[in-house]
Amino acid sequence: MRVIIEPNYERLSEWAANYVVNKINAANPTPEHPFILGLPTGSSPIGMYKGLIKAYEEGRVSFKNVVTFNMDEYVGLPEDHPESYHSFMRENLFAHIDCPKENIHILNGNAENLLEECARYEQQILAAGGIDLFIGGIGPDGHIAFNEPGSSLSSRTRIKTLTTDTRVANSRFFGGNPDNVPAQALTVGVGTVMSAKEVLILCNGHNKSRALQAAVEGPVTQMWTISSLQLHPHGIIVCDEAACEEIKHGTYRFFKDVERDNL
C-alpha cells in the first residue's frame, strides 16, 4: 500500500486529479480498448473532479474513450433529484467533459427488480474487462462505497441498509435531517472494488483520522471495510495532514520518506 500525505485538501485533490490524468493518458485508450474508471460521490472527490475538468479544458486529457462505473446510488430517489448520485455526477463532472453518455454507468435505484439491477451491474463490469482504476472515499467509520461496518470483504454489488451514522453524515445534503436520507442504497461490494486492477482512496479531514489509522495500521476486518485495501496489490491512499492525527509518528515519517519523490 502507498500512502501519499499532502498538506491540505487542495493539494490532495490536485495530486489525485493528476494521477488519474496520467493513468488515462498512459493507457492511450481507444474505442476498442477503453480505460475503465470507477468513480465515487460525496464531498471528498469534488476537488479532484474540478481538477479533472480543468485538465480536460486545458487539453491535457480526453474522456472520449473512458468508460465509467459509479460506486453507488440511493434506492427510491428520482434520478433528477438534486441529491441523487446521477445529479451529483452530472453537475460535478459529466456535464463538463467529453465522456460519451453511453460510456457512463450508474446504478438504477428505481429499478423494478433491484436484485437483477445489481447482478446486471456486475455483469457490465465483467463485460468491460474489469475496472482499471477504482477511486473511492472513506466514511468516518471506515466504510467504502456504502459497505458499512460488518459488510463482507468479498461482497459484490447489492442492496444495503444504511446505518444511522451514515444517514446522519449524509443529512447535510438533505436539509440536515437524517430522516430525509434514503434508508437503502445500491452499492458495489468490497470485493467489487478490490477486484479492480488499482484502487485509489481519498481521505481528508480530522473526522477521517480514525478510519485512516484503521486502514493503515489496524488489522484487516469487516468492521473497517477500508482495511481490505491492505490486501490489494496496487492500493493507494492519498490523504491530508488533518487525517493523519491518529496514525503513529513513525508510520507518518515512514510514508513521508518513501513517497518524498512523488509529492
Word description of this protein:
- Helix 1 crosses helix 2.
- The chain contains 8 helices and 10 strands.
- Strand 2, helix 2 and strand 3 form a beta-alpha-beta unit.
- The chain is globular, with a radius of gyration of 17 Å.
- It has one domain: Rossmann fold, CATH 3.40.50.
- It has 263 residues and is an alpha/beta fold.
- The strands form 2 sheets. A 7-stranded parallel beta sheet has the order 1-10-9-6-2-3-5, with helices on both faces.
Rg over CA atoms: 17 Å
Count of strand segments: 10
Q: What count of domains describes the coordinates?
A: 1
The number of helical runs is 8
Largest sheet: 7 strands, parallel
Strand-pairing-aware structural class: alpha/beta
CATH class, please?
Alpha Beta
At the third CATH level, what is the topology name? Rossmann fold
> How are the strands ordered across the major sheet?
1-10-9-6-2-3-5
Q: CATH architecture, please?
A: 3-Layer(aba) Sandwich
Order of helices and strands: EHEHEEHEHEEHEHEHEH
* Average pLDDT number: 96
- The percent range for helix content is 25-40%
Strand proportion, as a percent range, falls in 15-25%
CA-based shape? globular
How far is it from the N-terminal to the C-terminal residue, by CA? 16 Å
Return residue spans where pLDDT drops below 50 for at least 5 consecutive residues: none
